[in-house]
Amino acid sequence: MFHACIAGTGRAVPGKVLTNADLTRLVDTSDEWIVTRTGIRERRQAADGEVLSDFCVEAARQALEAGNVSVKDVDAILVSTVSPDAPIPSMACIVQHKLGAKKAAAWDQNAGCAGWLYGLHIADGLIQSGKARNVLLIGGEFLTRYADYTDRATCVLFGDGAGATLLKATKSDRGVLASTIRCDGEGAAFISMPGGGSTHPPNRPETLEQRLPFIKMMGGETFKVAVRSMVDVCREVLQESGFETDEVSWLIPHQANDRIISAVGERLGIPKERCVVNIDRYGNTSAASIPIALDEFVREGRIKRGDLILFTAFGAGLTWGAGLVRW
Ligand code: UT7
Q1: Per-residue pLDDT at 150
Q2: How far does Cα 44 stand from its chain's mean position?
Q3: Is the minimum distance from the CB of 113 to ligand 1 under 6 angstroms?
Q4: Confidence class of residue 260 from pLDDT cuts 50, 70 and 90?
Q5: What gap in Å lies between CA 304 and CA 301, rounded to an integer?
Q6: Which of 113, 155, 234, 275 is catalytic?
Q7: Which atom, in ligand 1's list, is nearest to the CA of 152?
Q8: CA of 146 to the centre of ligand 1 (A)
Q9: Cα of 144 from ligand 1 centre, angstroms
């Protein structure tokens, strides 16, 4: 039976760098607080006129080239995002057109920061069932466009960028060994953007007056449940596939907070030097954070054929998941 392997990766981030020092001019914060509480030193910010789908397309082209797959052979394009170019049509349709992937079905999914892992699980299922052979899985976000630059508790966290992965059908020992995705809608208020949908439509003045189309987060509560949930699903995929944590070559987690990454690594028994961290340079890019980190790591030549990679993420919904992949 076929299953999915990660055959190519790519990334594209805006050129503009927003440093912690820049943020001290907008809100009452400090480089020291942001670095010690989150690990973030700078993040990328899309300039006026820049469009997220262009970044997704650039990342996707790199992934196709790395995977040696022609755009005409792409069966499906899945974009994980909470910040699409526009509510209609989906980002994936815009990306499909810009790429010229005529044969590909295309759709978006909103699974918050766990979006890439949701996509991995679904794409592997499509490939296992024989419904697709080549799936482009893209995580792209322009979260700085939804950050409230009057709320120091959230605006310092988010950054912009896109990462892409090409998932290809294989019968080899490479690829997805196990994956799981979870949800608990009871925690919806932990991370939310209350305005901009049909409850508080963007065309009503009070929506903006009440600052509803901005990301809100209950940080401390989210922190605790994020660590616990990611550790649980990591243990689950390891157990399902019969591996121990000391066999994991790299943990590539969602980049929400360096302290969360350390806590997950410590509880699993994976030392920090085997945890991939780039939050210092990009901040939290939600569904884009794992594919951006993966692509950087791959292009730095850090991952070898046969390495065992554990992915995990947690985000709005609440959603979370884990995946174990043989490189
Ligand atoms: O990506 C999706 C999943 N997201 C996450 O998993 C994020 C989880 N949460 C977190 O990463 C952390 O909770 C935050 C980084 C968001 C916040 O860190 P914290 O250590 O939980 O801080 P806190 O919210 O408990 O705030 C501690 C103090 C407060 O002051 P008082 O009440 O103790 O006087 C805040 O007002 O830090 C203050 N504070 C700040 N101070 C300077 C909050 N934000 C800032 C800031 N600069 N930017």
Answers
A1: 94
A2: 15
A3: yes
A4: very high
A5: 7
A6: 113
A7: 48
A8: 18
A9: 17
The dihedral formed by the CA atoms of 122, 234, 64 and 307, expressed in degrees to the nearest 10: -140
Which tokens is 78 given? Answer: 């899945």
Domains observed in the chain:
3-171 (3.40.47.10), 177-326 (3.40.47.10)
CA of 288 to the centre of ligand 1 (A): 22
Percentage of residues in the chain with pLDDT exceeding 90?
100
Ligand 1 contact, 250 CB (< 6 A): no
Concerning whether 275 is annotated as a catalytic residue, the answer is: no
Specify the amino acid at residue 153.
Answer: A
Question: What's the whole-number mean pLDDT along residues 58-65?
Answer: 98
Q: Which of 308, 24, 242 is nearest to 152 (CA)?
A: 24
Which tokens hold the place of 137? 């899985």
| Three-state SS annotation for 2-26 | CEEEEEEEEEECCCCEEEHHHHHCC
Contact 235 CB / ligand 1 (< 6 Å): no
